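User: My instructor asked us to take a sequence, write out its structure as tokens, and then describe one feature of it. I'm not sure where to start. Here is the sequence I was given:
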Amino acid sequence: MNHRTSRQNCREKLVSQLFTLGEEKRTFLDAYFDVRDPQRIQLEKQLLAYTQYVEKLLLGPDEDLDSVVLIGSLIEFEYIDFHTSDSFVIVMPDDTDPDKGRISFLSPVGSQLLLGSKGEVRSVQTPSGSMRIRITGIELQSEAMNELTLGGADHAL
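Assistant: Let's start with the prediction itself. The structure tokens for your sequence are:
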């Protein structure tokens, strides 16, 4: 698959994400959060910011698709305080597989890195404490995006 086809595939998958996280937001949120859960309100705000950003991103050139952490992005990063590095792909909750380096955008780390940019340093809260992470690389993965689905339903992202 050439780069142009891969980028077009990524764009199509982002449009599908917008549909799922916009038009079907209530169904999506109901699948993961109780209506009274305070995290649900926070996530609704985050999803609004995410969808608005993706809408603007889709109007720009292909190069911009790797400028920010999106659902489907391979992220390379370094733990600043430990001088080590790692990588993973941010995915939808049902596609999570930590053994394969696939973490949910709803996870503590995934949600805190969403919409981050290359070179940015973020203090990420984890169950074991706070860690400083520098994002060193971002690449939107068309392969990872092909597998994104909403709750195992027939809605391809």
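For the description part of your assignment, you could build on this observation: The two ends are 19 Å apart (CA to CA). Try explaining in your own words what that tells you about the chain.
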